[in-house]
Automatic annotation (TrEMBL):
Protein name: Glycosyl hydrolase family 88
GO molecular function: hydrolase activity
Domain of life: Eukaryota
Cleavable signal peptide: 1-22
One Gene Ontology term from the biological process aspect of the record: carbohydrate metabolic process
Keywords for the protein's UniProt record, in alphabetical order: Hydrolase, Signal
Species in which this protein is naturally found: Cladophialophora yegresii CBS 114405
Pfam families: Glyco_hydro_88
PANTHER family given in the database record: CELLULASE, EXPRESSED PROTEIN
UniProt cross-references to InterPro entries, sorted A to Z: 6-hairpin_glycosidase_sf, 6hp_glycosidase-like_sf, Glyco_hydro_88
Amino acid sequence: MKGYVAPLCVAAFSAVLWLNLSAPDAGFNPQEVLATGRAITSRSWEFGTLVEALLEFHNHELTVFGSDPFPGGLIPQISDPSEVEGLAYAKSVIWINGTDLLVDGEGSAADPASLGTAALLLSHHDPRYLEAAERQAEYLMTKAKKFHVNVTHSAISHREDVPELWGDFIYMVPPFLAYHGVATQDLRFLDMAVLQCQLYDHVLRTGIELENGETCRGLWRHIVSDPPDLELGVCCSDPDVWLTSNAWAVAGMTRVLATILKWKPPPNSPVGQTEYDKFKANSRVVLADLIASMLQCTMAQAEDEGSGLLKNYLDGSSHRSAAWAYGDAAGTALMASAMYRLAVLLPETYGGSNAMEWAERNRRAVARHVHSGGRVSPVADVGHVPSKSPVSQTSEGQSMVLLMYSAWRACKEGTSWKAGLQRLTGWL
Ligand SMILES: *[C@@H]1O[C@H](CO)[C@@H](O)[C@H](O)[C@H]1NC(C)=O
Ligand SMILES: *[C@@H]1O[C@H](CO)[C@@H](O)[C@H](O)[C@H]1NC(C)=O
């Protein structure tokens, strides 16, 4: 089965392109996008996203999208982080002085967790990073503010002052919890990663209106708080369907899915093989369903005509958010990146020409919005919630375009296909 993974994905591209491995041209220069992003990165989730973008760009094999991300059932052991740019960067920003969180989250216990995977990858180099990751994970599991979902369940709040669920959470927390579960061989964390995706969907899912007047249900409101109306001065309210937030959710769930599908507990693990296989099969269905609902509505919604980009808000043209539904290169890039990843992970669903053409069209639209020096615009303003006017650059926008580049490259080069075939036959 593994051997089929990339051929479908690769088949969407010409063989000539595929063989041209040295410098795949995505229509923009990823190094410039990266350099511009690095220079403007200063906040917790921006650090974590840039680190993930650096890892996927320079050290793809260390990420959950690599062909063998858990050799022998363990996370990779890296002794010298100076050889891994993403980890050298992470090391320079992660706090190891005993705080609950990996860095200051400005009122969010979730955003700092975006650095959690990198902290775990630094644990072999220095055990203080493992301890810091453990404090962050424990804080989220036990101490963080909870949002009451129903009589049996509560979700982890994205913010600490009042219970709030933001779609953004799904990129910051579940990928870390799942990775932490693998690193510590503790199924509780993997379970929690999947459960949070379900609980967030339960609360945030809503309908959008398509051009033909039909309603599509599957995408999420940006933020729901408890109570729904916040006191003046408390961050933040946004009940509408924000592209970037939905892209965080789809891309985050894709990372969780990759982690779960690619891990195999080692023989001496406290996680039993049968128990894990059951968890894996169930999680695959749950995550694939959530992702499918979200992507289906995203693909069905009309794009911004002028720019060819996806719209900043997806509620539909008769909704009040239509007034600020300009084309957004950042959210478009992250959605496209998830689609390239899914083409490799779930080829039977996303390896076909429909999904690939959609991803390719969005990549080309994004490429047209990478300006000289690597600046990406227009992009959603992260300084205002709701995000009503585009800005000319953001750190996350730069990282999202880099994430798209790496996902596109991996899909196109069929790295997992080649690696899989190599393992099977040994002659490539
Ligand atoms: C930990 O280190 C950070 C960054 O150097 C600093 O801002 C923070 O106050 C320190 N916290 C504690 C509890 O020492
Ligand atoms: C609460 O919501 C979760 C997530 O959707 C669901 O799995 C669970 O069954 C619900 N519990 C009740 C009592 O409805």
